[in-house]
Amino acid sequence: MAHVSDFLTPSDLQRISNLQVFARQVVEGFTTGMHRSPHKGFSVEFKQHRQYVPGDEIRHIDWRVFARSDRYYIREYEEETNLRATIILDRSGSMEYGGGQPGQVSKFEYATKLAACLSYLMLQQSDGVGLVTFDTEIRRYIPPRSRVSHMRTILGELEAGKPGGETELGKVFHDLVPKLHRRGLLIIISDCFGEVSNFLKALAHFRHARHEILVFQIWHPDELNFQFKGWTQFDCMERAGVKHLLDPAVLRQAYLANLEKFRGELTRGCRRHKVDLVPFTTDEPYAKALAAYLSRRLARG
Amino acid sequence: MPFSLLNAGLIFGAVALAIPIIIHLFHKSRFKIVKWGAMHLLEAVLRTNQRRIQIEQWILLAIRCAIPALLALAMARPLWKGASSLLGNAKTSTVVLLDNSYSMDAARAGTTSFGIARDETLRLINELRTGSEVHVIMMGEGGRGLLDAPSYDLSRVTQALTKSSAGFGSARIPAALDLGAGALEKMHESARQVVVLTDFQRVSFPATEDALIERALQRIRSLPAGPNVTFWDVGQEVKENVAVESLDFSRLMVGVGQKVQIRANLRNFGDANHADLRVTFKVDGKDKAASQVALGPHAKAQVLFTHAFDAAGSHVVEVSTEPDVLAADNTFLASIPVRDRLPVLLVDGAPGATPDDIASETGYLQIALSPFAAGKVELSDLLEPHVITADAFSAKNLADTSAVVLANVRKLTPEQLRVLEDFVKNGGGLLVFPGDRTDSAWWNGPFATLAPVPLAGISGELKDASQGTGIAAQRFENPALEIFNDPRNGSMTEAAIKVWFKMKSPASSGDPNDPVVLARLDSGDPFLVERAVGHGRVIACSSAADADWGNLPARPFYLPLVQRLCVHLASTVNPPRNLDVGRSLVSFLPTAAAGKKALLTGPDGTSIELPIVKRDELGVVETAPLYQPGLYTLQPPGGQPIHYVVNADRRESDLARLADTEIAEFAKAHSVAVVHSSAEFRENEHRQRFGEELWKWVLLGLLAFIFLELILQRKFAGARARI
After folding, report:
1. B220, B181 in Cβ contact below 8 A?
2. Helix axes A286-300, A107-124, angle to 10 degrees
3. Buried b (16+ CB within 10 A) or exposed e, B214-226
4. Average pLDDT for chain B
5. N- or C-end of chain B: fewer Cβ atoms within 10 A?
6. What is the DSSP letter of A61?
7. CA distance A101 to chain B (A)
8. Better-predicted residue by pLDDT, B267 or B144
9. Contact between B39 and A233 using a beta-carbon 8 Å cutoff
C-alpha cells in the first residue's frame, strides 16, 4: 500500500510539519477572508463570555446570562471552517518530460509530489481533499474527504497514475464542473499546454461555479531555456509519429519569444479571471516552492 | 591570362571549403532524439520560420564555405596582371645579369663597357623601393651570383657590386638566364624582372644557342607572375683588337739550360693592318726578347721565341702585344716548371757484376740516360739514373724519384708492388721492359693493376733473325715520340728485334684512361703501350732494354727514345699549373707541410692564406674555383714559390657586335625588350605591367566574410526572436 513516505522524503515531511502552525493560520485566513464559506457556522465552538461594550451587536448578547445575572454579556465563538479542496492533476503525455539528464525528475513526478504534499498539508489541517486526474478525459475522481485515512486513497491514485495521451484542458474542465457539487478550492497542477483560450474559458467556467482556483504550472528547465546543442530530433510525447529534426540553436531565440508570448497570455488570462497562476520548475524543491506560495498567499492577506 | 597565382600549389587548400559542409552533414547525421512535451510551442515557431531558416542556413553555409576558400586563395597569392603597377611604386624581385666577360673591359671614353653597366646597375638598385630584393649574377664563365643568394640588403649588394670588375672569361647567355630563373624561383615579390646588361658581342649570341636562350626565357616566363625580361645594350662597336690567343710549348719537362721553343699565336680581330706589330717576350716579368710581326686585317700570325731557363723552379713566361682597346687579351701567360735534374730509378732484374756493368740489364739504359756522365764530359745530364736490384726496391728509393724503370724484373713482392702503385697513382712515371726473366703470370696477375696490357707469350727466335721483326714506320702522336716524326732525329725503323712479348692490343672503350699503343712492330704487335694510372702513367715496351733480344741499344735512336720516354713519364705536372677560368687551383706539397698555411697571391695583388691539408701521403692545397684570369703565386712554407696561370677563353677577343637589325630581330624573336640607355629603360619600365597582388584584398574579403557571418548569425537569430 502506498504511503506518504513514497512521495515525500523525511526532510520534506519535516519541512511540511514545520509549516503546520503557519499553514493553519494561512488556510484559516484565506478561507475566511477570501472565501465566503458556504457552511458558515457549521462547526462553531463556544469560546468565552465577555462583557458587552457599546458597539457590539445586540444579537450576540447572551440573554440567558442576562436573565441570571442582569448583566450584558457577549458570547464569543471560535469559528472553524473546513476547506474542500480538489487537486486536479494533469497526467497528459507532455507531463512526462523530464530531460535526459540523470537525477532530473519529470514534470509528472514533480506534480505528483506536489499533490501529495498539498494533500498531506490539508489533511493535517482536517481540510477535505479530493483528487481528479485527467488527460484527454477525466481518468479518476476522488471526492474530497477530510479523514486522515483518505490520504491513502489519494496516495494510491497518485502512485498508480501514469502520464500519457494528449492534453485537452478545456474539455476536461468543462466536464468536471458538474461533478464538483460544492464550491471549494480547485488546485490545478498542470503544464497548461494547449490552446490558451480554451484553458481560460474552462477557468471561467469554474469561476462561474464560484470555485476558487489555484494553478500550479509545472515547467521543466529545458522548456524554459531551450538550451539544446547540436542537431536534435524532437519526438512529440502526445502524438505518436510527430517529429521534427532541427538545429535548436538556430530556433532558440524564436522559441523563447514564443514561450514568452504563451506565458504572457496565460498570466494575463489568469489575472483577468482572478486565478492565481504559480509557475514551478522541476529543479526547485517543491516543498520550498509550496512554502513560497503560501507565504505569498499570506502576504496577500 | 591576366590572372595568375604566385603560390599555385596552395590553391588546392580551397578544397577546405568542403569542411563546413562536412561538419554540417556530420552534425546532422549524428542528431540526438528528445521526447518533447512542449511541441505546441516549437511547432508554432517552425510554422512561421521554417522556410526563412532554410534560406538563412544556406546563406550562412555559403559564407562559411567561402571563408576557407578565400583563405586558400589569399595564401596562393593571386596576381592580377590587368592592373598596372609601376616599378617605382612596388617592391620588386629583380635579377640583374651583368656581363663581366673580358670583352666588357673594352675601353671607351675614360671608362669601360663594364663600368657603364655597373654604374647603371647601381642606379637601378638605388631606385628600387625599400623592401625590394635583388640578385646580381655575373655572367662570366657560366655565371655566378655576386652574393650567394638573393638579398633584401640592397646596400650589401651595391657594396659588392662596387668592388666587382670585368675580365672574367666569356659570357654564356643561356646559362646565365637559367641561373636567373633559378634565383627568381626563390624570390618573393610579385613584381619581378630580369635585366640583362650585355655588350651584345656576337660570340655571346651564336645562332646555335638561340634555342637554348628561348628555353631559358620560357622558363623565366613560366614562373608565377611572368617576370619581364629586358636586355640592356651597354656595348659599342669596336673595330680594333689584337689578341695573343695562345702559347704553344713542349709539354715535356724542361731542364735547366735546355732550349725551349715558345710559340705565340696572335690574331687580329679588327680591320686595321698592323705592318709591324711589336710582340714582347718576358720571363718572370723580365723582358727577354721582342719581335716585330706583320698582322693584316683579321689575320693570324705566329711568333716563335726560344729561351733557356738558367735556374730550376717555377717560371712564368709572358707574351704581350701593343696596348689596344681591350687590354685583357694583349698578354698570354704560361707557367713552366724547370728542373735541374730528374732522378730515374732503374730496377735491374738481371744485374751485372757491378752496378754500371754494361752486361747488366740496365747497362745500356744507364749510359743512354746519362751520356755525359758516362762519357766523363763536363756537361750536366737532366736525367739522373740510379740502379738498384729488384730485391732492394723499396719506398725509400722513391723519395726523390720522378720515374722508375723496371728492366727484366721477374716479379715484385706484394709490398713492393703496393709501393710502386702508390708512386704511380700520385703522378710518378713507370717504364717497363720485359725480358727472359719476366714472369708473365705475375705480369698478368698482381701486376695487372699497373701493366698497360697483358702479355700473351714470347714471339721470335734468338737464333733465327729471319723470324724477327722491326718497328713499324708510323706517325707518332705522343710527345715523347713525336721527334721521330722528323727523320733528322733518327728513325726507329732501323731496329731489328729478334724476340718480343706479344701483347694484346687494347680495346678502346672511349675512356680517356684506356691504354694507348704508342708504337707498333712490323708484326702488328704493340711495341710501346701507355696507360694512365691515377695521376701517373705507365709505358710498357714489348722487348728487352738491353741487346739480348735485338739491336735496340745499338741504334742511334735508342738514346733519344729512352731519354724522351723517361722525361715524358717524369713530366707529369700534377696538378696542372695552367688552368682555365673556373677551375680550382690544387697543389701537392710534402707531407711535412700539412697543417701549415700557404700564401696565395692573386692577379690583383691580394693575398690569402690557404690551409695545407693532409691527404694520403701528401699535403694538399686547394682553392675555390678561380674566375679571375692572371697569375697566381703560391708560396708554400719554406719552399720555392709555385706559379699558376689562369687564362680565359679567347673567344671574347672578337669584339664584333650583333648589328642593330640583328638585335632588333633577337628582341622580336624572343619577345624581350631591348633598351640602349637608362632613359629608354625607364620608359620601357613605365610601359610594363607588373600586375597587382590581390592577397590583401582577398584577406580583407575574408575578414569581411567572418564579420558578415557573425553579424548574420546574430541578425537571423534576432529576427526569429521578434516573430
Report:
1. yes
2. 50
3. eebbebbbebbbb
4. 84
5. N
6. B
7. 11
8. B267
9. no
